[in-house]
Design a protein that fits this description.
This protein is an alpha+beta fold. It is built from 18 helices and 27 strands. The strands form five sheets. A six-stranded antiparallel β-sheet has the order 3-2-1-6-5-4. The chain has a six-stranded antiparallel β-sheet with strand order 9-8-7-12-11-10, sandwiched between helices. The protein has a five-stranded antiparallel β-sheet with strand order 13-22-21-18-19. It is elongated, with a radius of gyration of 41 Å. The C terminus is likely disordered.
């Protein structure tokens, strides 16, 4: 008896579908099931396709593609329609796809067709790939899984998402992701097992007779529907897995760019037949999981590289400095490698002093980070040789200008760097500061008054090989804090130097205690939600690198709080610095009880400074300090110059444009005077916060 006759007796037909040739060969029974003439023959592909329900045809294409990829049978249910579009019957197809030529897209499908009865409504028949809510649930699940895996930013997050996936109808209770290191199998992560359960599988040779290793060797999925299947195919490793009490297993390759990077294992405590639909879901999830792990692995590597660069380039603050406290922060930009051109440093000097350095190399890329590292080493070398701050920056500028080409490889101008170098004496609190195009430091008193300390400066490093960098002396009194920062702390968020300082000043005035908390608050003010002016969920604002270095001279417990003090040199060639002096004095007196007294002090300061610039040939040195507790303070302002000529009181006419300086002193100041000082003199005045000046009789 022929095979065809035996199959026909059980309502089973044979077919051979040649995808490349576009023909389908049917026996008589297969032709009858497809509602074609009941005789053996060769039919056009389009003629056979017209008998399938359109939805089922799209479904079978995915099933065939999965079977071709895995080398397994393609099984599906197909609804057969007549010429009017009515469904006549449902047939089940079980076929083996065989490659049909050099083109991988061509195949020959050889198998059987058999009529099956559809389950009646209300019965518990198995889900099919062509009807019911299961398919819609599957599609929704795959969309959610794809979105969640795409949003995972690290390997840990990818594994957490994979463990939380709830597959429609057949959710696994145990998952494991295996990787490869050399010639050995490793476990990247697992879920649903107790601590230590992964030990036998965490370091396994790839030659081991184990499903995960075979998947890596062959690149094909392995499905084990029953414990007998597992025990029969893998007797050597069956004793290791039987204790978990699972009934079915699926091992799928994690393939990226044609390379098998690992295996994904899904274990089930309930029997799973691994129908084509279930295998399709598992295969799709495995592909998405592989892509997500590849992206996360690259991100993890980049993040680790960034952290390594930060650790190697950002110094530790070293041992404690007697009488001083130091805090520092570095925050890179949010894009690309988390490292850029900003840096800070703390350098012990041979003289027992300490050097504080902060700088910013142009750019936020690896090139900027490399130049920053080289420049930092050069500055350390020049400082350790004992050079003064101006000489350190001059040598650093020459070094950087020789290190960078006139034009970069991309045609851009050579890189430059801003820098501030301060040499501090812990015993006296004196800081010698040299500045190369960098933002000025900020000095905050013990009671929270913060003032931008104007300092002399030169060009950024690397622009001129022989640039000069004048120094400025700043005395840090007990309890005072000096802040050095890069422009990222000031200008991030669309601010300029003026508005950025207005944003930071309340932070400095509010955090007068713990220096570490002050450093955190400064960064939070720039990057945290308070730096934004919008509502809703907010991400960190990282437009530029941020480096900040804080130094506080601690106040002895037995001494009273140190006075507020500020000083400024006004050169003959820079009369505009009088306005800088007025601004510094207003900042020093920001909480003075009487605003009229503040206006009077600023007016007297202007008169004294203008008198020096007009009537002498030298520079003016302004020193202002406020002593005492709020409400009972005394302000003293000294203006020194190098001339021995003493001022004298005049009686200006009604239309005179000068000669009123000393008259204003007598009217507005509580006390004033002129003190000779060697080669030069100092004119001064005092104002008491708690009293009004007594007006003299001018008649």
């Amino acid at each position: 008896m022929r095979t065809e006759d035996v199959l026909a007796a059980t309502a089973t037909g044979l077919w051979r579908w040649d995808n490349g040739a576009g023909t389908v060969t049917l026996d008589a029974e297969a032709a009858r099931l497809l509602e074609l003439p009941s005789a053996p023959g060769v039919f056009r592909e389009s003629e056979v396709r017209s008998r399938f329900h359109p939805v089922d045809w799209n479904e079978i294409l995915g099933v065939i593609s999965l079977a071709v990829a895995e080398g397994t049978l393609a099984e599906a249910r197909l609804r057969i329609m007549d010429e009017r579009g009515r469904v006549l019957r449902t047939v089940r197809s079980r076929s083996k796809p065989v490659p049909g030529g050099e083109d991988r897209k061509d195949y020959v499908l050889i198998g059987t067709l058999q009529e099956v009865a559809e389950p009646q409504p209300g019965t518990t028949g198995a889900h099919t790939p062509i009807t019911g809510d299961w398919r819609r649930s599957r599609e929704a699940f795959l969309l959610d899984a794809g979105r969640a895996l795409a949003e995972a930013g690290s390997t840990t997050e990818v594994l957490r998402v994979a463990y939380s996936l709830s597959m429609p109808g057949f959710s696994p209770d145990g998952l494991a992701v295996f990787g490869v290191e050399g010639e050995r199998l490793t476990i990247v992560g697992q879920h649903g097992h107790s601590l230590g359960d992964e030990s036998p599988f965490s370091d396994m040779p790839l030659e081991t007779d184990y499903p995960a290793t075979e998947v890596i060797r062959t690149g094909r999925a392995i499905y084990l529907p029953t414990p007998d299947d597992y025990r029969t195919r893998y007797p050597a490793t069956w004793p290791l897995v039987r204790r978990f009490g699972r009934r079915s297993w699926a091992f799928l390759p994690l393939i990226v760019s044609g390379r098998t990077m690992g295996t994904w294992m899904a274990g089930f405590r309930h029997p799973v037949s691994f129908s084509p639909d279930e295998r399709s879901v598992l295969t799709t999830v495995a592909r998405m999981l592989a892509q997500a792990l590849a992206r996360a692995g690259a991100a993890d590597t980049e993040r680790e590289l960034s952290l390594g660069l930060q650790r190697s380039m950002m110094p530790s603050l070293g041992p404690d400095i007697p009488g001083m406290t130091v805090a520092a922060r570095y925050v890179p930009t949010g894009g690309g490698l988390q490292v850029g051109g900003d840096w800070y440093d703390l350098i012990p000097l041979p003289s027992g002093r300490i050097a504080l350095v902060i700088g910013d190399v142009q750019g936020h890329d690896v090139r900027a980070a490399g130049l920053m590292g080289q420049l930092r080493i050069a500055l350390r070398a020049y400082a350790s040789e004992g050079h003064r701050p101006d000489a350190v920056l001059s040598r650093a500028s020459r070094f950087l200008s020789g290190l960078t080409d006139p034009l970069e490889d991309d045609g851009a101008a050579a890189r430059f760097a801003t820098c501030l170098y301060a040499e501090a004496d812990p015993e006296t609190g004196v800081l010698e500061i040299a500045r190369a195009g960098h933002p000025d430091p900020v000095v905050a008193t013990a009671d929270g008054t913060a003032v931008v300390r104007q300092t002399e400066g030169g060009l950024p490093l690397g622009i001129e090989a022989d640039a000069d960098y004048p120094t400025t002396r700043v005395v840090l009194e007990a309890g005072q804090t000096i802040m050095l920062c890069t422009d990222g702390l000031i200008e991030t968020g669309g601010h300029d130097l003026a508005t950025g300082w207005v944003r930071l000043r309340p932070i400095l005035e509010r955090h007068t205690g713990d220096l570490e908390k002050l450093a955190d608050a400064l960064v939070q003010a720039v990057h945290g939600p308070t730096s934004h002016y919008t509502t809703g969920p907010l991400a960190d604002r990282r437009e530029d690198d941020v480096a900040v270095l804080l130094l506080r001279r601690e106040a002895p417990v037995t001494h009273p709080p140190a006075p507020r003090r500020t000083a400024l040199t006004i050169a003959q060639a820079e009369p505009e610095r009088i306005s800088v002096a007025r601004r510094q004095l207003r900042e020093l007196l920001h909480d003075w009880a009487d605003p009229d007294q503040v206006d009077a002090a600023v007016l007297l300061l202007s008169e004294m400074a203008t008198n020096v610039l007009v009537h002498t040939d030298g520079d003016a040195l302004m020193v202002a300090q406020a002593i005492g507790v709020p409400g009972e303070r005394c302000l003293r302002v000294d203006m020194s110059d190098g001339s021995d000529e003493l001022p004298h009181k005049r009686r200006p006419g009604e239309m005179a444009s000068s000669g009123r300086g000393l008259v204003l002193m007598e009217m507005l100041a509580h006390r004033w005077g002129v003190d000779p000082r060697g080669a030069g003199k100092s004119i001064w005045f005092e104002l008491n916060e708690a009293e009004e000046p007594s007006l003299p009789d001018l008649d």
